[in-house]
Protein backbone atom coordinates (compact mmCIF):
# COMPACT_ATOMS: atom_id res chain seq x y z
CA UNK A 1 0.00 0.00 0.00
CA UNK A 2 1.44 3.37 -1.00
CA UNK A 3 2.27 5.68 1.88
CA UNK A 4 0.37 8.99 1.93
CA UNK A 5 2.78 11.93 1.89
CA UNK A 6 2.63 14.65 4.53
CA UNK A 7 0.78 17.85 3.60
CA UNK A 8 4.04 19.83 3.31
CA UNK A 9 5.68 17.27 1.05
CA UNK A 10 2.43 16.86 -0.90
CA UNK A 11 2.27 20.60 -1.60
CA UNK A 12 5.94 20.74 -2.64
CA UNK A 13 5.34 17.89 -5.10
CA UNK A 14 2.28 19.65 -6.54
CA UNK A 15 4.20 22.90 -7.04
CA UNK A 16 6.95 21.04 -8.96
CA UNK A 17 4.37 19.41 -11.21
CA UNK A 18 2.59 22.71 -11.88
CA UNK A 19 5.89 24.41 -12.80
CA UNK A 20 6.70 21.53 -15.16
CA UNK A 21 3.35 21.73 -16.99
CA UNK A 22 1.80 25.19 -16.51
CA UNK A 23 -0.18 25.05 -19.76
CA UNK A 24 -1.22 21.38 -19.70
CA UNK A 25 -4.85 21.70 -18.63
CA UNK A 26 -5.34 17.94 -18.21
CA UNK A 27 -2.31 17.72 -15.91
CA UNK A 28 -3.46 20.70 -13.84
CA UNK A 29 -6.99 19.30 -13.52
CA UNK A 30 -5.51 16.02 -12.28
CA UNK A 31 -3.58 17.93 -9.64
CA UNK A 32 -6.77 19.74 -8.58
CA UNK A 33 -8.55 16.41 -8.22
CA UNK A 34 -5.79 15.09 -5.96
CA UNK A 35 -6.12 18.16 -3.74
CA UNK A 36 -9.88 17.71 -3.43
CA UNK A 37 -9.41 14.07 -2.38
CA UNK A 38 -7.25 14.99 0.62
CA UNK A 39 -9.03 15.58 3.93
CA UNK A 40 -5.99 16.64 5.94
CA UNK A 41 -5.21 19.90 4.13
CA UNK A 42 -6.71 23.37 3.75
CA UNK A 43 -8.05 23.21 0.19
CA UNK A 44 -8.54 26.97 -0.08
CA UNK A 45 -4.96 27.77 0.95
CA UNK A 46 -3.50 25.11 -1.35
CA UNK A 47 -5.50 26.27 -4.38
CA UNK A 48 -4.49 29.91 -3.79
CA UNK A 49 -0.85 28.85 -3.65
CA UNK A 50 -1.13 26.72 -6.80
CA UNK A 51 -2.82 29.59 -8.65
CA UNK A 52 0.18 31.81 -7.93
CA UNK A 53 2.65 29.08 -8.90
CA UNK A 54 0.83 28.39 -12.18
CA UNK A 55 0.65 32.07 -13.15
CA UNK A 56 4.32 32.62 -12.32
CA UNK A 57 5.22 29.54 -14.39
CA UNK A 58 3.47 30.88 -17.47
CA UNK A 59 -0.18 29.87 -17.15
CA UNK A 60 -2.82 32.52 -17.76
CA UNK A 61 -4.60 33.85 -14.69
CA UNK A 62 -7.97 32.86 -16.13
CA UNK A 63 -6.89 29.26 -16.70
CA UNK A 64 -5.25 28.93 -13.28
CA UNK A 65 -8.27 30.29 -11.41
CA UNK A 66 -10.72 28.19 -13.44
CA UNK A 67 -8.83 24.97 -12.62
CA UNK A 68 -7.81 25.60 -9.02
CA UNK A 69 -11.23 26.91 -8.00
CA UNK A 70 -11.36 28.25 -4.47
CA UNK A 71 -14.61 27.24 -2.73
CA UNK A 72 -17.05 30.12 -2.38
CA UNK A 73 -17.75 29.06 1.19
CA UNK A 74 -15.07 28.09 3.74
CA UNK A 75 -14.80 24.33 3.83
CA UNK A 76 -14.60 22.68 7.26
CA UNK A 77 -12.37 19.65 6.89
CA UNK A 78 -13.70 16.93 9.16
CA UNK A 79 -11.55 14.04 10.32
CA UNK A 80 -11.98 10.74 8.40
CA UNK A 81 -13.66 9.18 11.44
CA UNK A 82 -16.08 12.08 11.96
CA UNK A 83 -19.67 10.96 12.36
CA UNK A 84 -21.32 14.08 13.78
CA UNK A 85 -21.63 17.60 12.42
CA UNK A 86 -20.25 18.95 15.71
CA UNK A 87 -17.05 16.85 15.62
CA UNK A 88 -15.27 19.68 13.82
CA UNK A 89 -11.80 19.57 12.27
CA UNK A 90 -8.63 18.84 14.22
CA UNK A 91 -5.92 21.48 14.59
CA UNK A 92 -3.23 20.59 12.07
CA UNK A 93 0.01 22.67 12.10
CA UNK A 94 1.29 20.69 9.10
CA UNK A 95 -1.64 21.65 6.86
CA UNK A 96 -0.53 25.12 5.77
CA UNK A 97 2.95 26.56 5.31
CA UNK A 98 3.69 29.77 7.24
CA UNK A 99 5.72 31.43 4.50
CA UNK A 100 4.61 35.03 3.93
CA UNK A 101 2.00 35.40 1.23
CA UNK A 102 3.51 37.14 -1.83
CA UNK A 103 2.56 40.79 -2.27
CA UNK A 104 0.56 41.78 -5.32
CA UNK A 105 2.51 43.64 -7.99
CA UNK A 106 1.82 47.34 -7.56
CA UNK A 107 0.53 46.93 -4.00
CA UNK A 108 3.32 45.89 -1.59
CA UNK A 109 0.79 46.01 1.28
CA UNK A 110 -1.78 43.68 -0.27
CA UNK A 111 -2.02 39.93 -0.90
CA UNK A 112 -4.54 37.76 -2.68
CA UNK A 113 -7.71 36.72 -0.90
CA UNK A 114 -7.67 39.81 1.33
CA UNK A 115 -9.90 42.86 1.68
CA UNK A 116 -8.16 46.12 2.60
CA UNK A 117 -9.81 49.34 3.77
CA UNK A 118 -7.77 52.52 3.18
CA UNK A 119 -8.98 55.64 4.99
CA UNK A 120 -7.98 59.27 4.68
CA UNK A 121 -9.31 62.76 4.23
CA UNK A 122 -11.20 63.66 1.07
CA UNK A 123 -8.78 65.06 -1.50
CA UNK A 124 -5.79 63.69 0.40
CA UNK A 125 -4.59 61.37 -2.35
CA UNK A 126 -6.22 58.03 -1.53
CA UNK A 127 -7.40 57.51 -5.10
CA UNK A 128 -3.88 58.17 -6.35
CA UNK A 129 -2.66 55.19 -4.35
CA UNK A 130 -5.08 52.95 -6.20
CA UNK A 131 -4.32 54.33 -9.64
CA UNK A 132 -0.53 54.18 -9.19
CA UNK A 133 -0.85 50.64 -7.90
CA UNK A 134 -3.07 49.64 -10.83
CA UNK A 135 -0.56 51.19 -13.24
CA UNK A 136 2.12 48.79 -11.97
CA UNK A 137 -0.27 45.86 -11.57
CA UNK A 138 -1.38 46.11 -15.19
CA UNK A 139 2.20 46.31 -16.40
CA UNK A 140 2.78 43.06 -14.51
CA UNK A 141 -0.14 41.43 -16.33
CA UNK A 142 -2.82 41.67 -13.62
CA UNK A 143 -6.43 42.61 -14.46
CA UNK A 144 -7.81 45.49 -12.40
CA UNK A 145 -11.33 46.87 -11.91
CA UNK A 146 -11.90 50.39 -10.56
CA UNK A 147 -15.41 51.36 -9.45
CA UNK A 148 -15.29 55.13 -9.20
CA UNK A 149 -17.67 57.88 -8.20
CA UNK A 150 -15.81 61.00 -7.09
CA UNK A 151 -13.09 60.34 -9.70
CA UNK A 152 -14.73 60.43 -13.14
CA UNK A 153 -13.50 58.43 -16.12
CA UNK A 154 -11.98 61.50 -17.78
CA UNK A 155 -10.13 62.37 -14.57
CA UNK A 156 -9.06 58.74 -14.25
CA UNK A 157 -7.54 58.82 -17.77
CA UNK A 158 -5.89 62.20 -17.13
CA UNK A 159 -4.23 60.85 -14.00
CA UNK A 160 -2.89 57.84 -15.89
CA UNK A 161 -1.25 60.22 -18.37
CA UNK A 162 0.26 62.17 -15.47
CA UNK A 163 1.73 58.97 -14.01
CA UNK A 164 3.27 58.05 -17.36
CA UNK A 165 4.72 61.55 -17.66
CA UNK A 166 6.21 61.54 -14.17
CA UNK A 167 7.80 58.15 -14.82
CA UNK A 168 8.95 59.21 -18.29
CA UNK A 169 7.13 56.27 -19.91
CA UNK A 170 6.45 56.50 -23.62
CA UNK A 171 2.73 56.40 -24.34
CA UNK A 172 2.98 53.90 -27.17
CA UNK A 173 0.98 50.87 -28.28
CA UNK A 174 2.85 48.61 -25.84
CA UNK A 175 1.96 50.77 -22.82
CA UNK A 176 -1.63 51.22 -23.95
CA UNK A 177 -1.97 47.46 -24.35
CA UNK A 178 -0.73 46.87 -20.82
CA UNK A 179 -2.88 49.57 -19.21
CA UNK A 180 -5.96 48.27 -21.05
CA UNK A 181 -6.02 45.60 -18.31
CA UNK A 182 -7.30 48.36 -15.98
CA UNK A 183 -11.03 48.98 -16.46
CA UNK A 184 -13.07 51.92 -15.16
CA UNK A 185 -16.70 51.42 -14.06
CA UNK A 186 -19.38 53.79 -12.86
CA UNK A 187 -19.76 52.76 -9.23
CA UNK A 188 -23.42 53.58 -8.76
CA UNK A 189 -24.58 51.73 -11.86
CA UNK A 190 -22.49 48.58 -11.34
CA UNK A 191 -23.14 48.25 -7.60
CA UNK A 192 -26.88 48.63 -8.09
CA UNK A 193 -26.90 45.81 -10.64
CA UNK A 194 -24.62 43.67 -8.47
CA UNK A 195 -27.02 44.01 -5.54
CA UNK A 196 -29.86 42.65 -7.65
CA UNK A 197 -27.78 39.85 -9.23
CA UNK A 198 -25.10 38.93 -6.71
CA UNK A 199 -24.28 35.55 -8.29
CA UNK A 200 -23.63 37.14 -11.68
CA UNK A 201 -21.52 39.80 -9.96
CA UNK A 202 -19.38 37.23 -8.15
CA UNK A 203 -18.83 34.97 -11.15
CA UNK A 204 -18.22 37.90 -13.49
CA UNK A 205 -15.70 39.72 -11.31
CA UNK A 206 -13.75 36.58 -10.36
CA UNK A 207 -13.47 35.42 -13.97
CA UNK A 208 -12.46 38.83 -15.34
CA UNK A 209 -10.25 40.47 -12.71
CA UNK A 210 -7.49 39.90 -10.15
CA UNK A 211 -7.94 43.11 -8.12
CA UNK A 212 -11.03 45.19 -7.39
CA UNK A 213 -11.11 48.73 -5.96
CA UNK A 214 -14.25 50.54 -4.80
CA UNK A 215 -13.86 54.30 -4.29
CA UNK A 216 -15.48 55.38 -1.98
CA UNK A 217 -17.68 53.25 0.30
CA UNK A 218 -19.97 56.20 1.00
CA UNK A 219 -21.04 56.13 -2.67
CA UNK A 220 -21.99 52.45 -2.29
CA UNK A 221 -24.27 53.29 0.63
CA UNK A 222 -25.90 56.04 -1.42
CA UNK A 223 -26.42 53.80 -4.47
CA UNK A 224 -27.99 51.00 -2.40
CA UNK A 225 -29.90 53.30 -0.02
CA UNK A 226 -28.09 51.73 2.96
CA UNK A 227 -26.80 53.37 6.12
CA UNK A 228 -23.05 52.77 6.52
CA UNK A 229 -22.68 55.60 9.05
CA UNK A 230 -24.88 54.26 11.83
CA UNK A 231 -25.84 50.70 10.93
CA UNK A 232 -23.36 47.84 11.27
CA UNK A 233 -26.13 45.56 10.04
CA UNK A 234 -26.42 47.37 6.68
CA UNK A 235 -22.68 47.29 6.10
CA UNK A 236 -22.38 43.61 7.03
CA UNK A 237 -25.20 42.78 4.59
CA UNK A 238 -23.30 44.54 1.79
CA UNK A 239 -19.95 42.98 2.71
CA UNK A 240 -21.24 39.42 3.09
CA UNK A 241 -23.18 39.63 -0.15
CA UNK A 242 -20.77 41.39 -2.53
CA UNK A 243 -17.26 41.36 -1.02
CA UNK A 244 -16.66 38.25 1.09
CA UNK A 245 -17.45 35.81 -1.77
CA UNK A 246 -14.78 37.54 -3.87
CA UNK A 247 -11.99 37.25 -1.31
CA UNK A 248 -13.02 33.65 -0.56
CA UNK A 249 -12.21 32.91 -4.21
CA UNK A 250 -8.81 34.59 -4.12
CA UNK A 251 -9.58 38.10 -5.35
CA UNK A 252 -7.87 41.09 -3.71
CA UNK A 253 -10.29 43.91 -2.82
CA UNK A 254 -9.48 47.51 -1.81
CA UNK A 255 -12.18 49.74 -0.31
CA UNK A 256 -11.62 53.50 0.03
CA UNK A 257 -13.39 55.48 2.75
CA UNK A 258 -13.28 58.83 4.53
CA UNK A 259 -12.01 59.21 8.09
CA UNK A 260 -14.03 60.25 11.12
CA UNK A 261 -14.31 63.90 12.10
CA UNK A 262 -12.93 63.66 15.63
CA UNK A 263 -9.19 63.40 16.28
CA UNK A 264 -9.42 59.80 17.54
CA UNK A 265 -11.11 58.77 14.29
CA UNK A 266 -8.34 59.89 11.95
CA UNK A 267 -7.00 56.35 11.71
CA UNK A 268 -10.27 54.52 11.05
CA UNK A 269 -13.17 54.70 8.65
CA UNK A 270 -16.02 56.99 9.58
CA UNK A 271 -19.34 55.51 10.64
CA UNK A 272 -20.04 51.84 11.28
CA UNK A 273 -17.29 49.97 13.13
CA UNK A 274 -17.97 46.92 10.94
CA UNK A 275 -15.93 48.58 8.16
CA UNK A 276 -12.80 47.89 10.17
CA UNK A 277 -14.05 44.70 11.81
CA UNK A 278 -14.79 42.86 8.56
CA UNK A 279 -11.64 43.94 6.71
CA UNK A 280 -8.53 41.76 6.72
CA UNK A 281 -6.28 44.84 6.46
CA UNK A 282 -6.83 48.48 7.37
CA UNK A 283 -4.60 51.46 6.55
CA UNK A 284 -4.59 55.14 7.40
CA UNK A 285 -3.12 57.95 5.31
CA UNK A 286 -1.15 61.05 6.28
CA UNK A 287 0.76 63.59 4.26
CA UNK A 288 4.54 63.69 3.87
CA UNK A 289 6.30 67.00 3.20
CA UNK A 290 9.83 65.75 2.51
CA UNK A 291 9.59 64.16 0.04
CA UNK A 292 6.14 65.40 -0.90
CA UNK A 293 3.68 62.54 -1.01
CA UNK A 294 1.34 60.37 1.02
CA UNK A 295 2.22 57.91 3.79
CA UNK A 296 0.13 54.76 4.19
CA UNK A 297 0.34 53.06 7.59
CA UNK A 298 -0.93 49.58 8.48
CA UNK A 299 -3.39 49.76 11.39
CA UNK A 300 -4.72 46.20 11.29
CA UNK A 301 -3.18 43.02 9.85
CA UNK A 302 -5.27 39.92 10.42
CA UNK A 303 -3.21 37.12 8.84
CA UNK A 304 0.09 35.97 10.35
CA UNK A 305 1.05 35.06 6.78
CA UNK A 306 1.03 38.66 5.62
CA UNK A 307 4.48 39.88 4.63
CA UNK A 308 4.17 42.93 6.90
CA UNK A 309 2.82 43.88 10.33
CA UNK A 310 0.84 46.58 12.04
CA UNK A 311 2.81 49.81 12.09
CA UNK A 312 4.57 49.27 8.75
CA UNK A 313 4.53 52.30 6.47
CA UNK A 314 4.73 52.97 2.74
CA UNK A 315 5.28 56.22 0.86
CA UNK A 316 3.79 57.17 -2.49
CA UNK A 317 6.00 60.01 -3.68
CA UNK A 318 4.30 62.70 -5.76
CA UNK A 319 7.20 63.05 -8.19
CA UNK A 320 7.49 59.36 -9.12
CA UNK A 321 4.02 58.07 -8.20
CA UNK A 322 5.69 54.88 -6.93
CA UNK A 323 4.85 53.07 -3.70
CA UNK A 324 7.87 52.31 -1.52
CA UNK A 325 8.20 50.62 1.89
CA UNK A 326 9.76 53.16 4.27
CA UNK A 327 9.33 51.83 7.81
CA UNK A 328 8.68 48.53 9.56
CA UNK A 329 6.64 47.97 12.68
CA UNK A 330 9.66 48.66 14.90
CA UNK A 331 9.02 52.37 14.43
CA UNK A 332 9.67 55.19 12.03
CA UNK A 333 13.43 54.62 12.18
CA UNK A 334 13.22 50.89 11.49
CA UNK A 335 15.18 49.68 8.49
CA UNK A 336 13.26 48.17 5.61
CA UNK A 337 14.22 44.62 4.67
CA UNK A 338 16.05 44.97 1.36
CA UNK A 339 17.75 41.84 -0.01
CA UNK A 340 20.35 43.98 -1.82
CA UNK A 341 22.64 41.08 -2.75
CA UNK A 342 19.72 39.14 -4.23
CA UNK A 343 18.50 42.29 -6.00
CA UNK A 344 21.90 42.63 -7.66
CA UNK A 345 21.98 38.93 -8.62
CA UNK A 346 18.51 39.20 -10.18
CA UNK A 347 19.42 42.43 -11.96
CA UNK A 348 22.62 40.96 -13.43
CA UNK A 349 20.75 37.82 -14.51
CA UNK A 350 18.02 39.78 -16.33
CA UNK A 351 20.63 42.07 -17.94
CA UNK A 352 22.20 39.03 -19.60
CA UNK A 353 18.98 37.05 -20.20
CA UNK A 354 16.16 39.42 -21.10
CA UNK A 355 12.57 38.16 -20.89
CA UNK A 356 12.91 35.64 -18.04
CA UNK A 357 9.79 34.60 -16.14
CA UNK A 358 9.53 34.33 -12.36
CA UNK A 359 10.00 30.55 -12.45
CA UNK A 360 13.17 30.96 -14.54
CA UNK A 361 14.59 33.53 -12.12
CA UNK A 362 13.85 31.33 -9.12
CA UNK A 363 15.59 28.42 -10.82
CA UNK A 364 18.73 30.40 -11.72
CA UNK A 365 19.09 32.34 -8.45
CA UNK A 366 19.56 29.80 -5.62
CA UNK A 367 17.82 31.79 -2.90
CA UNK A 368 14.56 31.58 -0.94
CA UNK A 369 11.64 32.20 -3.26
CA UNK A 370 10.10 34.80 -0.93
CA UNK A 371 13.33 36.82 -0.95
CA UNK A 372 13.54 36.57 -4.73
CA UNK A 373 9.93 37.79 -5.01
CA UNK A 374 10.78 40.74 -2.73
CA UNK A 375 13.85 41.54 -4.84
CA UNK A 376 11.84 41.45 -8.08
CA UNK A 377 9.11 43.65 -6.58
CA UNK A 378 11.65 46.25 -5.37
CA UNK A 379 13.52 46.27 -8.67
CA UNK A 380 10.24 46.76 -10.53
CA UNK A 381 8.92 49.44 -8.18
CA UNK A 382 12.20 51.39 -8.25
CA UNK A 383 12.48 51.31 -12.04
CA UNK A 384 15.39 48.90 -12.54
CA UNK A 385 13.36 46.28 -14.41
CA UNK A 386 10.00 46.21 -16.14
CA UNK A 387 7.47 43.41 -16.53
CA UNK A 388 5.72 42.67 -19.81
CA UNK A 389 2.92 40.21 -20.52
CA UNK A 390 3.72 38.18 -23.60
CA UNK A 391 2.66 34.73 -24.70
CA UNK A 392 0.57 34.31 -21.53
CA UNK A 393 3.52 34.82 -19.21
CA UNK A 394 5.11 37.70 -17.32
CA UNK A 395 8.56 38.42 -18.70
CA UNK A 396 11.17 40.64 -17.05
CA UNK A 397 13.42 43.10 -18.88
CA UNK A 398 16.27 45.26 -17.61
CA UNK A 399 15.87 49.05 -17.71
CA UNK A 400 19.09 49.94 -15.88
CA UNK A 401 21.57 47.93 -13.80
CA UNK A 402 21.22 47.68 -10.04
CA UNK A 403 24.46 47.56 -8.05
CA UNK A 404 23.50 47.81 -4.41
CA UNK A 405 22.37 50.76 -2.30
CA UNK A 406 25.63 52.68 -2.53
CA UNK A 407 23.78 55.85 -3.49
CA UNK A 408 20.50 55.98 -1.54
CA UNK A 409 17.95 58.62 -2.36
CA UNK A 410 18.83 61.63 -0.20
CA UNK A 411 15.18 62.64 -0.07
CA UNK A 412 14.35 59.48 1.88
CA UNK A 413 16.65 60.34 4.80
CA UNK A 414 14.14 62.63 6.48
CA UNK A 415 10.39 62.01 6.32
CA UNK A 416 8.36 64.78 7.85
CA UNK A 417 4.74 63.74 8.39
CA UNK A 418 1.88 66.14 8.25
CA UNK A 419 1.33 65.75 11.99
CA UNK A 420 1.76 68.42 14.68
CA UNK A 421 3.71 66.18 17.06
CA UNK A 422 6.58 65.42 14.66
CA UNK A 423 9.35 68.01 14.37
CA UNK A 424 12.01 67.79 11.64
CA UNK A 425 15.61 67.64 12.71
CA UNK A 426 16.61 71.20 11.76
CA UNK A 427 18.28 72.30 15.00
CA UNK A 428 21.73 71.81 13.53
CA UNK A 429 21.00 74.38 10.81
CA UNK A 430 19.77 77.10 13.22
CA UNK A 431 22.00 79.75 14.80
CA UNK A 432 21.18 78.91 18.40
CA UNK A 433 23.13 80.96 21.01
CA UNK A 434 25.37 78.90 23.25
CA UNK A 435 24.48 78.42 26.89
CA UNK A 436 26.94 80.17 29.26
CA UNK A 437 29.09 77.98 31.46
CA UNK A 438 28.72 77.81 35.24
CA UNK A 439 31.91 79.84 35.69
CA UNK A 440 30.30 82.65 33.72
CA UNK A 441 27.13 82.56 35.79
CA UNK A 442 28.45 81.97 39.35
CA UNK A 443 31.48 84.01 40.52
CA UNK A 444 34.44 82.23 42.10
CA UNK A 445 34.06 84.12 45.39
CA UNK A 446 31.04 85.36 47.28
CA UNK A 447 30.62 89.11 47.68
CA UNK A 448 31.79 90.82 50.88
CA UNK A 449 28.78 90.77 53.18
CA UNK A 450 29.91 94.05 54.72
CA UNK A 451 29.04 95.72 51.42
CA UNK A 452 25.44 94.49 51.57
CA UNK A 453 22.65 96.59 53.11
CA UNK A 454 22.38 96.00 56.88
CA UNK A 455 19.28 93.91 57.58
CA UNK A 456 16.98 94.66 60.41
CA UNK A 457 17.73 93.18 63.78
CA UNK A 458 15.15 90.41 63.51
CA UNK A 459 16.35 89.43 60.06
CA UNK A 460 19.98 89.47 61.26
CA UNK A 461 19.11 87.13 64.10
CA UNK A 462 17.34 84.71 61.74
CA UNK A 463 20.31 84.69 59.34
CA UNK A 464 22.79 84.07 62.17
CA UNK A 465 20.75 81.20 63.58
CA UNK A 466 20.36 79.68 60.11
CA UNK A 467 24.10 79.88 59.34
CA UNK A 468 24.84 78.44 62.73
CA UNK A 469 22.78 75.39 61.93
Topology, pairings included?
Layout: H1 7-20, H2 25-37, H3 43-57, H4 61-67, E1 103-104, E2 107-111, E3 115-120, H5 126-139, E4 144-148, H6 153-166, H7 173-179, E5 182-186, H8 187-196, H9 198-208, E6 211-215, H10 217-224, H11 232-248, E7 252-258, H12 274-278, E8 281-289, E9 292-301, E10 313-317, E11 323-327, H13 340-352, H14 358-364, H15 369-381, E12 385-390, E13 393-398, H16 438-441, H17 457-468
Parallel strand pairs: 3-7, 3-8, 4-5, 4-6, 6-7
Antiparallel strand pairs: 1-2, 8-9, 9-10, 10-11, 12-13
Structure description:
The chain has 469 residues and is an alpha/beta fold. It folds into three domains: 7-67, no CATH class; 103-327, Rossmann fold, CATH 3.40.50.300; 340-398, Arc Repressor Mutant, subunit A (Orthogonal Bundle). The protein is 39% helix and 16% strand. It is built from 17 helices and 13 strands. The strands form three sheets. A nine-stranded mixed sheet has the order 5-4-6-7-3-8-9-10-11, sandwiched between helices. Strands 1-2 form a two-stranded antiparallel ribbon. Strand 8 (281-289) and strand 9 (292-301) form a beta hairpin. Helix 8 (187-196) crosses helix 9 (198-208) and helix 9 (198-208) packs across helix 11 (232-248). The longest helix is centred in the middle third of the chain and has 17 residues, at 232-248.
Amino acid sequence: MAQISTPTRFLADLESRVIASPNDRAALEAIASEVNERTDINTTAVFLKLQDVAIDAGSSAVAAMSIFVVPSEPVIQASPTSTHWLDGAPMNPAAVATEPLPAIAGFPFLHRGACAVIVGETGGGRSSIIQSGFYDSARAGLRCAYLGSEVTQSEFDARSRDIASRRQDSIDDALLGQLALVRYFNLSSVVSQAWEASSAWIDGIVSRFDILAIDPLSAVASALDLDFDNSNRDYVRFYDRLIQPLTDRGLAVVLIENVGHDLSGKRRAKGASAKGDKADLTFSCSRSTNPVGLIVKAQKVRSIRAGFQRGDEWLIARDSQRIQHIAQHGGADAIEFRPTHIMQEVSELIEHEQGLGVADIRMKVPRRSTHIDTAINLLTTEGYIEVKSEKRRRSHFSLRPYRGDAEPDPNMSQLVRGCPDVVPDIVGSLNVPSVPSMSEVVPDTLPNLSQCPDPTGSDRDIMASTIGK
